[in-house]
């Protein structure tokens, strides 16, 4: 009786993408909510894909979430600056 030989297996691990959920929620609450909502959606999709082991899809959704967070932050700053300028002119 012969037993099967042991074959070595190489397992490579890929780091999970960054979790953008907290910045997405903060950008939705504090900056510009329309893009913040989409940032939350993409951050959730990225977390789901990472939990399922689909790293490529997780990275794609995480990049979309990051982009939307940056857009939300920029639009929020611009709107705040316009509000300050309009308020100072009308006062």
Automatic annotation (TrEMBL):
Keywords for this protein: Membrane, Transmembrane, Transmembrane helix
Residue stretches in coiled coil: none
Entry's localization field: Membrane
This protein's record includes keyword Protein biosynthesis: no
Transmembrane regions listed in the UniProt entry: 20-43, 64-86
A GO CC annotation given for this chain: membrane
Domain of life from the UniProt record: Eukaryota
Family: Belongs to the CD225/Dispanin family.
Name of this protein: Proline-rich transmembrane protein 1
Lineage: Eukaryota, Metazoa, Spiralia, Lophotrochozoa, Mollusca
């Amino acid at each position: 009786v012969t037993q099967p030989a042991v074959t070595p297996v190489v397992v490579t691990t890929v780091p999970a993408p960054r979790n953008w959920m907290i910045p997405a929620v903060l950008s939705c609450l504090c900056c510009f909510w329309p893009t913040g909502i989409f940032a939350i959606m993409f951050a959730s999709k990225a977390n789901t894909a990472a939990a399922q082991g689909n790293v490529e899809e997780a990275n794609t959704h995480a990049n979309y979430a990051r982009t939307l967070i940056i857009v939300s932050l920029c639009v929020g700053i611009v709107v705040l600056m316009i509000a300050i300028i309009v308020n100072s002119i009308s006062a």
